[in-house]
Design goal:
The protein has 244 residues and is mainly β. 7% of the residues lie in helices and 67% in strands.
Length: 244
């Protein structure tokens, strides 16, 4: 199915070039509601995984008054909160190819309603990390060193290495035409497939008293990475550049 999507994209590129009537550049932001989780690890400490937030640079191709192709680049970030030990982000780059059909145009209000269907090439870009946190009890020689390590070396590193990270997108959209000032675009999309995987994180706690190790505890757990869910987005496009 993923290969079919890729070949379908290649097959329509010539028609896009021939039929293109104009395009709009834009910028915006988006929010993905995904399956978040809270994971207990060493000594009942918790890793809290947030929803996904993003910024976008948009490029929309207008084929006719009814059809357009929406693309661009989306940068997304998901917060990983290890409490008092570490706060970091999982980051993603996504390139959508979404076909939009406008089924209603309210001329007096400048509002156009449509439906979206397409896919996107998705890529996680965050790196492995290894960090230590040291704490000491006042007026004693007790020292606690907590190490957190996450290994993401299995992720693709090449710019165009997307492997199986292709998601399906479908939903509804609305465009408000502000004349020469541009267009305001809103969309709500369901994302299927997408990025789905687990990454090992390991924690180690070493307690020393007077320089002597009195306790050493290691735990292993998994952070589940998934981008499937419900996405809301809003972006502004800067007018239309047409071709004769």
């Amino acid at each position: 199915m993923r290969n079919l999507s890729f070949y379908f994209l290649l097959s329509i590129l010539p028609f896009i070039a021939i039929s293109q009537k104009g395009f709009q550049f834009g910028v915006g932001f988006n929010h993905n509601i995904v399956q978040t989780e809270t994971i207990k690890y060493l000594n009942d400490n918790e890793l809290k995984v947030s929803n996904i937030y993003g910024l976008s640079v948009n490029l929309d191709y207008t084929l006719s008054s009814k059809f357009r192709i929406k693309s661009g680049i989306e940068y997304k970030s998901q917060n990983l909160d290890f409490g008092r030990f570490l706060n970091t982000n999982a980051e993603y780059i996504m390139i959508p190819i979404v076909f939009n059909y406008n089924f209603s145009h309210l001329e007096r209000s400048g509002l156009t309603l449509g439906i979206d269907a397409g896919f996107s090439f998705d890529k996680p870009i965050f790196e492995s990390f290894d960090t230590n946190t040291t704490s000491r009890e006042s007026e004693t020689t007790k020292e606690t060193v907590t190490r957190i390590n996450m290994n993401t070396q299995s992720l693709p590193t090449g710019v165009f290495e997307f492997y199986d990270y292709i998601s399906l997108r479908y939903g509804v959209s609305a465009k408000y035409n502000m004349g020469k000032s541009g267009q305001l675009n809103f969309y709500a999309q369901i994302i299927d497939w997408g990025i789905d995987g687990s990454f090992l994180f390991e924690t180690n706690e070493i307690i020393t008293v007077d320089g002597q190790v009195t306790s050493s505890q290691t735990t292993k757990n998994y952070f589940n990475m998934a981008t499937a869910g419900l996405q809301f987005g809003l972006y502004y496009t800067f007018g239309t550049l047409t071709f004769k």
